[in-house]
Amino acid sequence: MMVSILVPSSKIELTGEIQQALLLAKQQGLAIDNIELGVSPTQYLLIKTEQSELVIGSDLWSCSPTDCHRYIHYRSSQVSLPIDEQSVYHGIEDGTDWLDIWVHADNRETRAIGYQTDPRLVESSHHFAWIIALLSLDFPLEDALTLARGKMHVSRETWPSEYDDFPLPVLEHERLGISVGWNAGSEIGQFSPVDETKLGLYPVVDSLDWVTTLLELGIKTLQLRIKDADTQNLEQQIKAAIELGKQYHAQVFINDYWQLAIKHRAYGVHLGQEDLEASNISQLRSADIRLGLSTHGYYELLRIVQLKPSYIALGHIFPTTTKQMPSKPQGLVRLALYQTLINSIPNVSHGNARQNFGYPTVAIGGIDTSNAALVWRCGVTSLAVVRALTLAESPQEVIGQFEQIMRDKALLVEEVMDVDG
Question: How far apart are CA 151 and CA 127, in angstroms?
Fold first, then answer.
């Protein structure tokens, strides 16, 4: 699908900045051959495809704030409250920090990212060009804003990859009305770690029968995900799955039903971004239950890492039909970029004492034996699979194929280390 970036003639110098950003993205492996640059017939910057047109204005040039989808403020020292849905404010001073602030398009929540480097030390047009380049690469707005701000903290030839490069999503801010319900306060403790020796293949199944079958086949980590809360004998299935996990010394995670997980003393709970508001993080931590959290990009990753979970799920990697997804497929390039970022995040309670950085990661979404090796090479800790097992004629044979793929990668790493040594 072709993408056209059309720059207003009054700000035509942005074209070179955008082109430089795209070329650096290409060096990371992101596809830019379908993106073309041109001149806008209006006062607005346009990002056009055959199906859509995104109209962007800014106070960086003479441009009305009306009739555009997003108007990006750089020269405003204050935020007009409540924030309208089209405004994005950059570089708002907030005590010792600086904020970029906007309203999420889907749920209308005010969101913000915070950082300590004075934004006046970088050129606003450079920052704006990066936002445009990232939007044209199909990053959602929250990721474009997060990544563009991170880019301002590194050299022009460098893609931001280290945790310290990035801003952090704001969890609580009274004046802006930001209150993330699951925030447990400023002193958030680390969730207990998982046993990484039991990670690798991570089946996600929807019935107790599958839990029993896979544990009998030697699986050591799995998730029970029953989508329908009205399922008959739901609590009994969850309780039985938890008990089976203890019997087989396996790491059984319960998806979503955190109250029942606490009640029956589950090993772990897995929550999606959409489930966090309804959960009670403090209760889960007090119950010493491991916590796995889903993410779909830079902003969500940096948001939930502040909770210090037991593992981070990254996805969905490939198209999947097992559930309705809130985001587009991430692909292998972005997966590798997220993994690099996670590897730099301080974690003093890392499940494997070999290091104090990084979290265990679970790649999920459309993974099967045909693409598992490519996903595994991105450096993830675990591969979550659904249909690859549940639709298989011989689950045991498929398990063996996955284990071989992961074993081959481990042997390759050992050989490289021996050569380097």
Answer: 8
On whether both 50 and 168 belong to a single domain, the answer is: yes
Residue 186 falls within a domain, yes or no? no
Going residue by residue through the chain, which has 421 residues, state the pLDDT in tens, using 9 for 90 and above.
Answer: 899 999 999 999 999 999 999 999 999 999 999 999 999 999 999 999 999 999 999 999 999 999 999 999 999 999 989 999 999 999 999 999 999 999 998 888 999 999 999 999 999 999 999 999 999 999 999 999 999 999 999 999 999 999 999 999 999 999 999 988 775 555 678 899 999 999 999 999 999 999 999 999 999 999 999 999 999 899 999 999 999 999 999 999 999 999 999 999 999 999 998 888 788 888 999 999 999 999 999 999 999 999 999 999 999 999 876 666 566 899 999 999 999 999 999 986 654 544 589 999 999 999 999 999 999 999 999 999 999 999 999 999 999 999 999 998 655 444 433 433 4
Contact call for residues 39 and 26 (beta carbons, < 8 A): no
Q: How many Å apart are CA 157 and CA 120, to the nearest integer?
A: 20
Find tokens 């979503």 and name the residue: 256
- What CATH number has the domain bearing residue 396? 3.20.20.70
Using CA atoms, how far residue 312 sits from 56, 292, 361, in Å, is 33, 6, 5
Beta-carbon contacts of residue 115 (< 8 Å; ≥ 6 apart): 97, 98, 149, 153, 167, 168
Tell me which of 146, 179, 212 is where a domain ends.
179
Domain membership flag for residue 191: no
Report d(CA 266, CA 275) in Å as an integer: 18
Residues 6+ apart with CB under 8 A from 27: 159
Same domain, 126 and 205: no
Contact (Cβ atoms closer than 8 angstroms) between residue 287 and residue 260:
no
Please name the residue that has the structure tokens 């699908």: 1
147 domain residue, yes or no:
yes
Tell me, yes or no, whether 269 and 350 share the same domain.
yes
Structural domain for 304, as ranges: 196-420
The answer to whether residues 402 and 328 belong to one domain is yes
Residues 282 and 389 in one domain: yes
| Element (DSSP H or E) covering residue 6 | strand 3-8
Together in a domain, 24 and 134:
yes
